[in-house]
Amino acid sequence: MRSPALRHVLTHLITPLLMCVGMGLAYMGAFVTPEPHHLPVAVVGTTPEAKVFAQTVKDTAGEKLDVRTVATRADAVGLLESRDVTGAYVPSAKAPELLVASAASDMGAMAVEKVFTPLAAGQGVPLKVTDVARPVADDPTGQGLFFLMIAVSIGSYASVAALGAAGAALPMRVRALLAVGVSAVVSCVGAVLAGPVFHLAHHDLAGVWGMAWLYSAGILLIGVGLHTFLKRWTTLTMMVLFVMLNFTSSGGLFRPELQNGFFGTLHAFWNGAGFVEGVRSLLYFGNDGLGRTVWTLVVWLLAGVLVTAVAALYEGRTRREAAHAAAGAEAAAASAGTESGRTGPRHAKDEAAREAEREAEREAEEEVEESVGV
């Protein structure tokens, strides 16, 4: 390609085009066709009739449902509150009841209603739906926590561009401290949005802030560490890790049982799922399962610390090698100047160093602009 300017533009178009492909595959693959896959439900009753009914539901649904029987309605409520089942059906000839917990997943509650409503209609009786864990009135669908995660995520991975590119001249320990500080600010923004602004969290706002900080700090430290090795490709990598794979597997819109196996598997250990499910546990389910989700976020944070530490060691070695090479070049230039009585080689070396510094600054500015623009 003859035009350097055109080649430069085309090179920078690679990132947004790859994002277009990746976002399309991720979002459409995760959200376009939600269908139950081993959706856990319960049938209340220990009588032969209840067991036959449960087996009939299982045989009819096939792999779409995992059906179990429980002895009492209270047992079914307990399973819903621990999110071990998505719905529980209480058979009755006159007043059948479906128990759901829409705070765990509004879409999941709707899915089990679609399963059991026709069964009750076939008996000629209306189905009573009881929600044992309803979201707050300010967040009727329970999806506000998903959008809170998006806000915290964007504040985190977008800051990586500034810390990695614009702050490249700073020592890694300084960038790491800045990452911790930025994550505190981002989590404060998240807590304000969740509390005073949109009233998603009517209690335990400090806990929401703490989980947002763990989540944000993990993303920032991973990004700052990766930037040492990936440079301008860091933005694309962060989008893959913390948007394409993260938002789609978080369970904020669809529980893993309503997604294909790939995103359902990611839900078990990805950091977005840890944040969303952890905040749900905190706000709606009496901290049930909170410890596991917190540990998920802690592991991601430790991964960020590890990546940053490796990057710091690599940068230290690179600086030492560069200093050694520069000292050798300076000694050679001084020797050549002494022998010839000229200082040209040193001036050439200094000019080359200045040009390299200007080029690095241009690349950093382009990377920040590209990252923020995306």
Describe this structure in words.
- This protein has a five-stranded mixed beta sheet with strand order 2-1-3-4-5, sandwiched between helices.
- The chain has 374 residues and is α/β, with parallel strands linked by helices.
- The model has no long low-confidence stretch (mean pLDDT 87).
- α5 packs parallel to α7 (205-230) and α7 packs antiparallel against α11.
- The chain is built from 13 helices and five strands.
- It starts with a helix and ends with a helix.
- 39% of the residues are buried.
- α2 (48-61) links the parallel β1 and β2 (65-70).
- Helix content is 69%, strand content 6%.
Task: Supply the key terms.
374 residues, 13 helices, 5-stranded mixed β-sheet, 6% strand, 5 strands
Give a topology summary.
Layout: H1 4-31, E1 39-44, H2 48-61, E2 65-70, H3 73-81, E3 87-90, E4 97-100, H4 106-122, E5 128-131, H5 144-166, H6 172-197, H7 205-230, H8 234-244, H9 246-249, H10 261-266, H11 271-284, H12 290-340, H13 344-373
Parallel strand pairs: 1-2, 1-3, 4-5
Antiparallel strand pairs: 3-4
Helix pairs in contact: 1-8, 5-6, 5-7, 5-8, 5-13, 6-7, 7-8, 7-11, 7-12, 11-12, 12-13
